[in-house]
Structure formats: C-alpha cells, structure tokens
Amino acid sequence: MIHIKKYNPWIFYPSVLCDTFPQNPATKVLSGDYNFQVEMRLTLLDTIDKNGTVFAILPKYTGLDIHKNMLFFTVRYEDDSSQFYQFPFQIHDGVEIDMKIVHVSKKYLKIYINEEEQLNINLETLGLYVDSNPCIVFGANSFNHVDDSSNSTELYIHEFKVYEKSKLLSHHTCDEFIFNKSVDKTGNLNFLHHKILEC
C-alpha cells in the first residue's frame, strides 16, 4: 500500500516523467471525450472535523472531498460550471472506501462506494469537462504548491485501476515500487508517483 502523509500527495501523471513516455498515458482518457472507469481502494486516516481532498482530477477539478465527517463529490462540467454532491453517510478515521467511477461520454457519470451506487448524473444535456492533459492528485487539491490551503489529508491507497471502456490501461496493487514510483502491473508504464517527481 501507499501511505500518503499530509502535505505529501502522490500523483497519477505518467506523462510528466517524460514527454514521450509512456506512449499512450492512461490519464488522457480522464475527461468528457472518453468512456472511462476508475477504481480505487482506500483507507481514510484524517477525517475528524477536517476539510481534506481525498483525490482530485486536475486541472478541471473533479474529485472526492471530506467536510465535517462527510464525503462530497465535485463534478466539473464542459461549460466550466461545478456541482457538489454529498454522500448520505458519515465517515471516520480508518474507514475503508472501495470506489468506482464510471463515465460514458455524453450519457452518464456513476459513482459507486463499496459496491452501492451513490450518484448517477445524466450528462446528455451537459457533458463532463474536456481537457487534453489531466492528472489525478491523491491527498491534496494541488501538487504545485502544497500548503495549508491545499486541503491536504492522509490516507492509504491499496489498489488503483484505470480503464478505457473495458480495456485495463493501468493497475496498481501498491506493493512494488521503483524510485518513488508504484509499478503499473499492466506493463503499460503508467506509474503512480510521489509529487517530488513533478516537472
């Protein structure tokens, strides 16, 4: 597993390591033009009376946040508007989250937590944001300047997957590392890495 400590986020941004490596970074599918699925298994460690970002898809902020012992999901739409959705349960330190995000372009965005559907957003009128170079940050709302305004939080990542349609592009079991990078079990070189590797 990866222990993400406060003020030390990890990022899923394989193309930042090198412009041409990997050849087809998995992050490219994480916007409104693509059908994608993201799965992650997490343990939240810093929840009590805190504001924190569990993860954020940047630069068009879509992500999971903690506020007053509740989880909120923010969705950014193609017109740059945002909507916040509160999940109907409280959380606590040590809570395990098995999360799945399913996006079908211009149709819907569905969020599942522990195999139960928590959110189903119709995107037929207004689709998800579009960006050519997104990334995912875990444990903060930014990786450029992490400070008290970054909603930094602490958590464990146990597993992480990205699919385009049904094709698995990246799979991290977070048990094998090389130079501060979690090894992508698919062999596609889509590393999950510590923020120190940012360019």
Structure overview:
Helices cover about 0% and strands about 45% of the residues. It has strands spanning about 1-5, 10, 35-45, 50-60, 60-65, 70-75, 80-90, 95-105, 110-115, 115-120, 135-140, 155-165, 165-170, 175-180, 180, 190-195. It has a nine-stranded antiparallel sheet, with no helix packed on it. Strands 1, 3, 8, 9, 10, 12 and 13 form a seven-stranded antiparallel sheet that branches. The chain has one domain (about 1-195): Jelly Rolls. With about 200 residues, it is an all-beta fold. A hairpin with a 2-residue loop joins strand 12 (about 155-165) and strand 13 (about 165-170). The chain contains no helices and 16 strands. About 35% of the residues are buried.
Walk me through the topology.
Blueprint: E1 2-4, E2 10-12, E3 36-44, E4 51-58, E5 62-67, E6 70-76, E7 82-90, E8 96-104, E9 108-113, E10 116-122, E11 135-138, E12 155-164, E13 167-172, E14 177-178, E15 181-182, E16 192-194
Which descriptors would you attach to this protein?
single chain, mainly beta, Jelly Rolls, globular
Concise summary:
This protein has 199 residues and is mostly beta strands.
